[in-house]
Amino acid sequence: MDTTNYKVAAGIAANIADEETAIKGYYELLSTLIDPNDILEIKEIISDEKNHAQKLKAILLKYDGNVPTATD
Fold it and tell me: Is there a domain that residue 70 lies in?
């Protein structure tokens, strides 16, 4: 059995985890900021990170061997 795609999927999943970790850190940072402009900037960064995670999740589906989700 060729496991190359699973290795690619694992790499993509690791990058998704990195994006999620970054998002968590930015949410924590938001609770410490006072300047409304800084808050807006961080919210924009969070939006970007969430977009990255969504794109990676879509790519992941091409490499995960069609492993179904619990709702499938």
Answer: no
